[in-house]
Amino acid sequence: MGVKDRSNEKMIWIAGWYVAFVWFFAISANWLLQENISPGKFGMVIFLFAIAFILICAPWWQPQTPYWQLMWPLYVLFIVCVAAWYQYGPIGEGTDFVWGDSLYYIPVFIPLFMVGGRRWADGDAEDDTPAPPPLRKLPYYISE
Known about the structure:
Largest sheet: none
Oligomer: single chain
Order of helices and strands: HHHH
């Protein structure tokens, strides 16, 4: 057996993290269009850092490193993006931060806990486990 083709996993890593930051690019462009130059430039720089970290922290470059160590710089940048959102607001003025709003961001951290201990190299091992048995036939009273 040969090495697994993991190009789909690579694409998902890059696309998933890109989508996590593209909203901030749009908001930064909006700030620049409104001639709110300082936060607009800051946002564009943070977005460029995010793109760089997406590629630098890619797990296929460091296959023995646990995912949580590769994901924490991206999560720090995400927190910076959210802080900038509260500092400058969607249309240039700041918004009030309410601690209850932070509960909305908890689901964002679920992947950190679900796959944080795994490594890229874990997926390279050949899987010798047998296939699961086929599904049993449905009873006659359950239609497909």
